[in-house]
Each structure stands twice: as C-alpha cells, then as structure tokens.
C-alpha cells in the first residue's frame, strides 16, 4: 500500500536509497536531507515493512520532479514502482501542477506510464539549482522524461 512517509520511515527510506546509490543508479541522500524533505516522500508498505520509496519535489508553480524512486530488488516487477509514480502524479494534480518530470536510467519504465523522453534544457530550474552541483554534471547519462497532467 502506498502512503505518505512518516518520520519513523526515514531510516528505511535512507537504506533503500543507499542500495541503489552504491550501484550508481540513484544519488545518495543523507538522513538530514530526508528528514528535511519528508513531506515530499511516499512509501510502499507491505507487511509493516517499507519496500519502496519515491518523492515529489516541487520546483515551480507548474513543475515538479519525481525523485528517489526505488523498490527493493525482491519486490520489483510487481507494480510497486508504478503505484509510487502514480501517487506522485496524483499529488501533483491535487496541487495544480501541470508537468511532472524525472531523470532516469530506465526511461522505458516511465514511458509505459505515459511519460515522454524530452530534452533536459526544458528544466532550467533543476539544472541550475541541483544538477550544477552534482559530481556527474558534465557526464550525466540520465534521461529526462516528462508527464503532462491534463
């Protein structure tokens, strides 16, 4: 079941993100960063255990990003990632946000949900506030995808 994250979920959120960060598939997030942004996070809970995470970070009046999407390996290919993305899109819709994007190594996953591959230059708010500080900035291989909310 997808739900908004609670403070008590922070250690599990960090542990899940860290699994994929060590593989270079996600950027690491500190406990402090997760606590500061806890209201952005959704978790997927199964049998009282957090097995997947995502966050929706707002950049501007009409733009938000899905970040830190990760599902534990044993729980992948069960629709959990899709449910987490849909929760982010639903929240963006409720807030009146018109565009949701993600930077990903697996654009096919997002395309199956209705995202389109686009150019990163469409997101100057992201590039000049966060990407510019990333160690991978000049060699970023993430693919930007965009979902337009009707």
Task: Provide an overview of this structure.
- Helix 3 (80-95) links the parallel strand 4 (63-71) and strand 5 (99-104).
- The protein has a single domain, classed as Gcn5-related N-acetyltransferase (GNAT) (Aminopeptidase).
- It is built from five helices and seven strands; from the N terminus they run E-H-H-E-E-E-H-E-H-E-H-E.
- It is α+β, with helices and mostly antiparallel strands.
- It has helices at 10-22, 31-36, 80-95, 107-111, 124-129; strands at 2-4, 41-46, 49-60, 63-71, 99-104, 116-117, 143-148.
- It is 31% helix and 29% strand.
- The longest helix has 16 residues, at 80-95.
- A seven-stranded mixed sheet has the order 1-2-3-4-5-7-6.
Kindly report the name of the CATH homologous superfamily. Answer: Gcn5-related N-acetyltransferase (GNAT)
| SSE series | EHHEEEHEHEHE
How many domains make up the coordinates?
1
CATH topology: Aminopeptidase
Q: Helicity level, as a percent range?
A: 25-40%
> What's the β-strand tally?
7
The chain-level structural class is alpha+beta
What's a concise summary of this model?
This protein is α+β, with helices and mostly antiparallel strands. The protein has one domain: 3-Layer(aba) Sandwich (Aminopeptidase). It contains five helices and seven strands.
């Amino acid at each position: 079941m997808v739900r908004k994250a609670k403070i008590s979920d922070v250690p599990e959120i960090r542990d899940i993100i860290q699994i994929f960060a060590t593989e270079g598939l996600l950027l690491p997030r500190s406990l402090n960063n997760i606590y500061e942004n806890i209201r952005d996070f959704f978790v997927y809970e199964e049998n009282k255990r957090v097995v997947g995470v995502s966050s929706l970070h707002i950049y501007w009046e009409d733009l938000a990003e899905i970040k830190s999407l990760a599902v534990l390996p044993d729980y992948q290919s069960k629709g959990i990632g899709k449910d987490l993305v849909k929760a982010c899109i639903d929240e963006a819709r409720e807030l009146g946000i018109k565009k949701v994007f993600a930077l990903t190594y697996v654009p096919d996953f997002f395309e199956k949900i209705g995202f389109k591959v686009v150019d990163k230059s469409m997101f100057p708010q992201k590039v000049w506030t966060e990407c510019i500080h990333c160690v991978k900035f000049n060699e970023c291989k993430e693919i930007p995808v965009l979902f337009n909310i009707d």
